[in-house]
Amino acid sequence: MNAYHLKPKTKRNPVFQKAHEQGKQAGYQEATDIFHKFLSERMQTLEDIPGIGEKTAWKIHEHFLKGMEETNK
């Protein structure tokens, strides 16, 4: 048997499987929340970057908003 051979999956304990799925979903939600908070904070400071004014900052905001709208379709 080589290192890449996988054992056939056995039936998982439904209690453990449910807890695993709930933990995975909670982790995904927490990571998403952290990312959105980070992105929001960074977007608010765009105009602090030399060479980026109100118009350029707005264009960047629009770009991200448009991308999120397309992703949510």
- Helical fraction equals 55-70%
Gross geometry: elongated
The termini sit apart by 46 Å
Number of strands: 0
The number of domains: 1
Mean pLDDT: 87
Q: How many helical stretches?
A: 2
Evaluate the radius of gyration.
21 Å
The secondary structure category is mainly alpha
Poorly predicted parts: none
Strand content: under 5%
Properties at a glance:
73 residues; mainly alpha; 2 helices; 0% strand; Helix-hairpin-helix DNA-binding motif class 1 domain-containing protein
What does this protein look like?
It is a single chain. The chain has 73 residues and is mostly helical. The chain has one domain. 67% of the residues lie in helices and 0% in strands. It contains 2 helices and no strands. The chain has helices spanning 14-44, 54-71. The radius of gyration is 21 Å and the shape is elongated. Residues 1-24 are annotated as: Disordered.
Set down the secondary structure blueprint.
Elements: H1 14-44, H2 54-71
Overview in brief:
With 73 residues, the chain is mostly helical.
